[in-house]
């Protein structure tokens, strides 16, 4: 683990203490969890975009017709 020092306004520091207490965690543990969650979210978005764009485009070039809108949106 690596220690990091942050500076917060007095009002924000009070809010963070209450927020951490509501989760029954220390301020350090609550903030570490929040930062880790943000990091995972960003990684997941990157992976999803890579899968989406890595699949390649499907181009209909054989002269066939595109599917009808009604078929695409059947429920």
Structure described in brief:
With 75 residues, this protein is an all-alpha fold. It has 3 helices and no strands.
How would you explain this protein's 3D organization?
By secondary structure, this protein is mainly α. The protein has one domain (10-72). The protein is built from 3 helices and no strands. The protein has helices at residues 10-22, 27-54, 69-72. Helix 1 crosses helix 2 (27-54). The longest helix has 28 residues, at 27-54. It starts with 9 loop residues before the first helix and ends with a helix.
* Rg, alpha carbons: 24 Å
Global mean pLDDT? 88
Q: Could you say which structural class the secondary elements and strand pairing correspond to? A: mainly alpha
Helix/strand order: HHH
Number of helices: 3
Shape estimate = elongated
Write the SSE topology.
Blueprint: H1 10-22, H2 27-54, H3 69-72
Helix pairs in contact: 1-2
Note the main attributes of this structure:
75 residues, mainly alpha
